[in-house]
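Researcher: Here's a chain I'd like modeled. Treat it as a single chain, no partners, no ligands.
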Amino acid sequence: MTAAEGLKHAARWRWWEGALLAALALSWALLPKQALLLNEIAILALFALSLDLILGYAGVVSLGHAAFFGFGAYTAALFAKHVFADPLTGLAVAVAASALLGLACSVLILRGSDLTRLMVTLGVASILYELANKLDWLTGGADGLQGVVMAPLLTPFGRFEFDLYGRTAYAYSAVVLVLCLFIARRLVHSPFGFSLQALRDNRLRAASIGLAVNLRLVAVYTVAAAMAGAAGALLAQTSGFASLDVFDFHRSADVLLALVIGGTGYLYGGIFGAIVFKLLQDLISGWTPQYWNFWIGLFLVVLVLVGRDRLIRPWTWWRRRA
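Model: Modeled as a single isolated chain. Structure tokens:
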């Protein structure tokens, strides 16, 4: 099999991918009362997808991915409030602004160990958090940016208002998620994507065979920042609000937990992880509002100790290892 045939084989669509996209469309039609929760899942899935590009494929660990999420959220909210309320235009501006921020911050992850990158990325998110807090004349500070009213979503299929039920919001977020998934899928199944996996496994060896390691890291970090900014923009546009919470550490922690649950390095791990994490959060918080963090933490401990595959297939628990 030639290299071109191998790439073509890896990029072909599987039946379960089509089933997942069909389920996404059916969920909008069959679960109208759960549209707000489904919208949150779609946004977290897009956020996790962006992190998986740098963590699962390039091996760049980050504790401050919320920096791009929050920057996209504030950019979209400020643009809608002061410039133009069209959601698609605001989304494009937020994506471009987040990509530029990612490009500027990418130089910080080119050198150092994984621990260094953890601290640097966390520091960037903390700086943006404090800037948003201090620039209260622009961002609203601790009170958040209020009064963000989005214009109706204009598409070739008609005019759709953002309402309290969240159906338009969910459809909007789901379409953006699918588009970004197509882009990410095309990226990782290209020669560029396979070169990312090579430098993830051994950066020194990748450089020794002539790969431009730094340029590839800058490129994928910029793309991931743009997608994270898109997720933040969707949150601000569909909720009509942006607050300091979008820069908070728990945003970066939640998206990491989603990837831990779903798995890294195959794009859909973030999507499946976001579904499980949000459903657990919704169900357990409804059952025990005060202690839902404990039960999610217990689930993660069991997941790590037992293993994802064995947890999904419990009949293998007592099978002896060869």
